[in-house]
Amino acid sequence: DHLQGEFAALRRELGKTIVMVSHDLGEAFRLADRVALLDEGRLVQVGAEADFRERPASRHVERFLARHLDA
Question: What b-and-e string marks burial along 31-54, b requiring 16 or more CB atoms within 10 Å of the CB?
Fold first, then answer.
């Protein structure tokens, strides 16, 4: 949690775009303005957490969220 907080502060301080790869969807939503979800190398949805929760692009996205977040 501390490292994630430091990373988020650094991003805000620098005002730069940062690309980070994570297999932890909760972490991605905590740190990012926008998240890209891939399925077998294919981009299936890009957006903020609200986009994923309110407008999942497919059943795959819905199932992924159900498995990886406390829905």
Answer: bbeebebeeeeeeebebebeebee
Q: DSSP labels for 17-56? A: ------S-HHHHHHH-SSEEEEETTEEEEEE-HHHHHHS-
**Measured distance CA(46)–CA(5) in Å, rounded:** 23
**How far is Cα 59 from Cα 25, in angstroms, rounded to an integer?**
17
**pTM (2 decimals)?**
0.78
Query: pLDDT tens, 23-42?
Result: 889 889 988 889 999 999 99
Q: Which amino acid is at 18?
A: I
One-letter amino acid identity for 17? Answer: T
Which helix or strand (DSSP H or E) is residue 58 part of? Answer: none
